[in-house]
Amino acid sequence: MNLLRRRDGGSELPRQAAAPPPDDGLKASAMRGSEPLYGYVVALELVVVGVLNLTVTSGKGAPSHPSTALAGVGVAAAISLFGFLQTKNRVLVAFAVIAAAFLIDLPKVPNSLALAHVFSLALPFAYSLILTQRHRKRMKGELLAARARRSAAPPRSQAGRKAKDAAAAPRGPRPSGRYTPPKAQRPKKR
Questions:
Q1: Bridge partner residues of 14 (DSSP)
Q2: How far is CA 5 from CA 9, 15, 34, 167, in A?
Q3: In 3D, which of 39, 56, 41 has the Cα closest to residue 114?
Q4: Cα separation of 72 and 74, whole Å?
Q5: What is the pTM of this model?
Q6: pLDDT digits (tens, 9 = 90+) for 102-128
Q7: What is each CA distance from 189 to 132, 182, 183, 186, in whole angstroms?
Q8: Roughly what angle, to the nearest 10 degrees, separates helices 35-55 and 90-104?
Q9: Three-state SS across the chain?
Q10: pLDDT at 149 over 80
Q11: Cβ pair 29, 90 in contact under 8 A
């Protein structure tokens, strides 16, 4: 049983053995289960808010000259998010979702769209947080599994280890930046 000694000098606590990640043959950054589906929902929500940015241009708090080009860039970013979701890469999708949400919320819009903009920031942020936390958890599980495999490997024999250490030991003086080896002397002529 692995034991973990407490830092405060108290008694030893049993170390929790982390369950190895399921060996499904996918990388830690690969999306699994319903993650892509939630991504499509977030992308659709961003497209809807982007279209609202383009169509709702009047009302309290609306700019006198709305920036349709900036709103169009936001809609294009939200639509391109569907392409990023096709890669099924957690890290890439998390960054793309945050970038699309930022671009959607850039144009100045009427106060009536304030709640829609809150959701267009909150949902993508929560989705990208979930993706990155699952990625981190999977990477940690893979690291622990690799450590367990290394520690379970049979130890090398002591004789083989001593012979290898002796062969690797340097011979002669240790070289340094100031060391100059002596020059070979020529035999004297008589």
A1: 3
A2: 7, 9, 40, 37
A3: 56
A4: 5
A5: 0.64
A6: 999 988 888 888 899 999 999 999 999
A7: 79, 21, 18, 9
A8: 20
A9: CCEEECCCCCCEEECCCCCCCCCCCCCCCECCCCHHHHHHHHHHHHHHHHHHHHHCCCCCCCCCCCCHHHHHHHHHHHHHHHHHHHCCEHHHHHHHHHHHHHHHCCCCCCHHHHHHHHHHHHHHHHHHHHHHHHHHHHHHHHHHHHHHHHHHCCCCCHHHHHHHHHHHCCCCCCCCCCCCCCCCCCCCCC
A10: yes
A11: yes
For 61-85, b/e burial (b = at least 16 CB within 10 A) is: ebeeebbeeebebbbebbeebeebb
Residues in the chain, how many?
Answer: 190
What are the tens digits of pLDDT across the range 157-171? 665 666 666 666 666
Distances in whole angstroms, Cα of residue 7 to Cα of each of 14, 15, 78, 82, 160 = 14, 14, 49, 49, 36
Would you state the torsion angle of the CA atoms of residues 164, 165, 171, 175, taken in this order, to the nearest 10 degrees? 120
CA separation for the pair 131, 35 (Å, rounded): 8
What is the residue type of 81?
A: L
**Amino acid identity for residue 14 in this structure:** P
Closest to 68 (Cα-Cα) out of 58, 85, 53, 81? 53
Going by C-alpha positions, the residue among 120, 145, 97, 128 that lies closest to residue 45 is: 120
Q: What is the CA radius of gyration of the chain?
A: 31
3 phi, psi to nearest 5 deg: -120, 145
